[in-house]
Amino acid sequence: MSETASCSSSGGSVATGDSKTDRLKRLRDLQMRRNEARKLNHKEVVEEDRRKKLPANFESKRKRLEWEEQEEKKRKECQAGGDDYERVKLLEIGADEAEKWERKKKKKDSDKGFSDFEQATARKYQTLTKQMKPNFDEYSREKNKMGEEAFYPTKDTLGVMHHKDSTDNIDRMVTDLEKQISKREKYSRRRAFDDEADIDYINERNQRFNQKLERFYGKYTTEIKQNLERGTAV
After folding, report:
1. What is each CA distance from 101 to 90, 104, 107, 111, 112, in whole angstroms?
2. What gap in Å lies between CA 159 and CA 152, rounded to an integer?
3. CA 69 to chain centre
């Protein structure tokens, strides 16, 4: 009887020790997890504070620099392999991306029309200078023909009498002037008034209303109008 009691008491003490060891182990695991979570939280707080101190366009600049580095790397690889970089780049563009880019390109209108005389003059100057193509052979011939004193006029030189424009230059100037006239006609939004048109309105508001009716329902009411004018309407 005593042996049985001693065995049970020793078994209970072993079980109690094992459970205590498990609790201590779980407590240490929780403490380690808590410390790890505290470190991660502190790391995130420091990173968030660093991001707040950065400029507003830092991310866009970083992406731009990464893209430029990738493009430069790809360009060097193409040069090393003997390939054309622009051709390789175009081959990588999908059909949907090309179509999307083409639509965006069509939407952009480089000609914004007339805003003021200063901008119109600057735009015209830029357009004319881009069209100019110097001919050095003709330049040398004209210089030898006129001489340096007449070719480089001063305040006492009448250069108009020595120089004569060629037929090609005159034709080019006339063509450019005709293009300017036709282009300016498109800028005007004023609608021409037709003196011979029938007056079927009492004021401008009624005129615009009748024009809208004619635009939407004119093809359905043409026969009725003709019958009323002829007096044959039933």
Report:
1. 12, 5, 10, 19, 21
2. 8
3. 22
Compute how many other C-beta atoms are within 10 angstroms of the C-beta atom of residue 146: 15
pLDDT digits (tens, 9 = 90+) for 117-152: 888 888 888 888 887 778 888 888 888 887 777 777
Q: Which tokens in the block code for residue 230?
A: 């002829």
CB 162 within 8 A of CB 154: no
Please classify residue 63 by burial: count the beta carbons closer than 10 Å to its beta carbon, then call 0-12 exposed, 13-18 middle and 19+ buried: exposed
3-state secondary structure of 47: helix
Give the separation between CA 44 and CA 38, rounded to whole angstroms: 10
The total of other beta-carbon atoms located within 10 Å of residue 53's CB is 7
Cα separations in angstroms, 37 against 25, 29, 149: 18, 12, 89
Burial of 99-137, coded b for 16+ CB within 10 Å and e otherwise, reads eeeeeeeeeeeeeeeeeeeeeeeeeeeeeeeeeeeeeee
Residues 6 or more apart whose CB falls under 8 angstroms from that of 209 comprise 201
Band of pLDDT at residue 209, cut at 50, 70 and 90: very high
Mean pLDDT, to the nearest integer, of 189-198?
71
pLDDT digits (tens, 9 = 90+) for 75-134: 888 888 888 888 877 777 777 777 787 777 766 655 566 677 888 888 888 888 887 778
Cβ-based burial of 175 (10 A; exposed 0-12, middle 13-18, buried ≥19): exposed
How far CA 115 is from CA of 54, 119, 186, 216, in Å, comes to: 40, 7, 15, 34
